[in-house]
Every structure is written in structure tokens, then in C-alpha cells.
Amino acid sequence: MNHRLALPLHRYDGQGRVLPPRMLWLALLVLMRGWLAWLLALVMRPDGSALLGLLYPRHQDFYTALAIGFLPLLLSLMIMQRTRLWQHGWQALFVMIKPVLLGLLLLDITFQLRVIYLQHFSFDLLLGGLVLFDAVLIMWLQRSKTLRITLADWQRPDPEESI
């Protein structure tokens, strides 16, 4: 019997499960940037509000970024606790990762385009870069064979249960 691995060996953990792709973590971090900015502002205590004011001149934009970043924060926690979810038989939750990320990236692009509109279409390298990067992440989500294999693997029952 010849068993071929779907991915290179370094993409598996010690239990034979596929590790999360780096681009998945990157997509989650990009979507959680409001939370990361808030955390950075907390660490830089005296200048934290100045940092948030620089990144988000309108308070509403900051709160919108926090709202967009809440689900990616939960998805990150879910991915980090995937072994525990497998042990409790909740592997069906991993089905929602791809559609939720796709929807959040589209929402983030809409949010960035709204900010660009409110700035009267004046060029901003950061906003343009974020829109472009979100578009690249959407293409990656749609085309990634690694992500497809990873999510299919994560939906299988826990291999330790069958022992």
C-alpha cells in the first residue's frame, strides 16, 4: 500500500495533522490590525492615543476596524485550540473558516474604499496597499490548494480517538 502525503512533511505536526498555512495567519493578522493597534497603544502608554490618532484619525474608523477584527480574533483562538476542538468533536467548525475570511476580506475592502471616498480619493499609500493586499488574500483564499487540504484535514475526526 503506497500512501503519499498531500503536502511536504514539514507541513504536518507530530500527530499527522496539517499545520495552518502562514498566509492564513497573515490574513488573520491583517484583519485584526485594529486590535493590534489598540494593543500597541496600550503598551506605548503615554503616546498610545497619538498612535491611534495617526492610524485612525476618525474614531469611527477605529471602532469599525475593531468590529471587523473581532471574528478573525475568534478564528485565531479557534485555530490555536484546534486539538481541543477535535477532542470534543467540534471539527465541523473548521468548515466556516474560508467563507468567513472571504466575507471579512470583502468587508475590509469595502471599509477601505469608504475611507478613501471620505478622503475625496486623495492618494494614501497605506490604504491603497491594504486594498491591494486584501485582494491578493482573496485570490489566495480562492486558489490555495494548501488551504483546501488543510481545512479538509481539520474536518476529519481526531486520529487519537480511533486508537
From TrEMBL:
<protein>
    <submittedName>
        <fullName>DUF2919 family protein</fullName>
    </submittedName>
</protein>
<feature type="transmembrane region" description="Helical">
    <location>
        <begin position="62"/>
        <end position="80"/>
    </location>
</feature>
<feature type="transmembrane region" description="Helical">
    <location>
        <begin position="92"/>
        <end position="111"/>
    </location>
</feature>
<keyword id="KW-0472">Membrane</keyword>
<keyword id="KW-0812">Transmembrane</keyword>
<feature type="transmembrane region" description="Helical">
    <location>
        <begin position="117"/>
        <end position="141"/>
    </location>
</feature>
<feature type="transmembrane region" description="Helical">
    <location>
        <begin position="23"/>
        <end position="42"/>
    </location>
</feature>
<dbReference type="InterPro" id="IPR021318">
    <property type="entry name" value="DUF2919"/>
</dbReference>
<dbReference type="Pfam" id="PF11143">
    <property type="entry name" value="DUF2919"/>
</dbReference>
<keyword id="KW-1133">Transmembrane helix</keyword>
